[in-house]
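Our consortium's second objective concerns turning raw sequence data into structural hypotheses that experimental partners can test. To show how far this objective has progressed, the report includes one record in full. It was chosen at random from the queue rather than selected for favorable results. The single chain below, 322 residues long, was entered without modification.
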Amino acid sequence: MTEMISALKGALDYTRAYRGRTFVIKTGGEVLARADTTANLAEQIALLESLSIRVVLVHGGGPQATTMSERLGITPEIVAGRRVTSPEVLEVAKMVFAGQINVDLLAALRKVEVRGVGLSGVDGDLITATRRPSVRVHDDDGTTRIVDFGAVGDVERVDTRVLGTLLDGGYVPVIASLAADASGQPLNMNADTLAEVLASSLGAEKLVFLTSSPGLLRNVEDPSSLVPFATPTDLEALTIAGGITRGMRPKIEACIQAVRSGVRRTHIIDGRRADALLIELFTGAGCGTMIVNAKERQSYEENEMANNGDDGGDAQRASWSG
């Protein structure tokens, strides 16, 4: 009981700071692949909502789309962490993202009395996109090639009025990673990119990625190589050295862009870990990677030093160490 009271008191400064703020949370399909991790995510969002935090939930569904594609005899193609979307894959994306996953997530939220509303970027003209032209891509194997990603959209315009209406009404928007062009043609979108665009457009306090990794790792084979705290500049050398690969690449790119667009703090955590979102948000130590600009890092370190003593205390998130 004493430990619980102490934890509540320790979270008080965070709850005061976050009240009325907007958090954009993006969850990957790996987190939603299991009923227990989906239920745990819903419970954490219910707690955030009870603290008057405005939550926008964006979801992907890569593993589920891959499974469905293979079941239908379609071979998925992923280049540099991004899915190539043929006409057949687009049909799978519409079925899985805006259908199966969105409904299951809404049902989990309803169970904990959170009023979720299912959307995609097509709804309310939320996202107007243009079909991505063929682009030169540096793949994870070190090769460079021209890739046609197919029916994949790049953001042209964002209209967040529908989100403002829902948030003001006490609803949690749950957004599938689809968009449409000006003529109404549906397009697949990278969910990490969608989350960043929405966080930047909404002036969000935080952008959080829930993944199947503890965060950004210097060595993807070594969970103990977690990078707990970094700025975009810190990450440049790691990127050049090829240390950011596969599905982590679009997440890091999204965090960097969000920080540069004014989002105060971005986070990458393991969404499969019980209560990881709450641990990351309401403790100084956190449990994943936090990416901020240099000014915000200085502010964070000064605040933690003041709160925990001259040595920074056990709660202070370790700084980048190269």
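The partners drew two points from this record. The first helix runs from residue 2 to 10. Confidence is low (pLDDT under 50) at residues 309-315. Both points have been shared with the crystallography group to help prioritize constructs.
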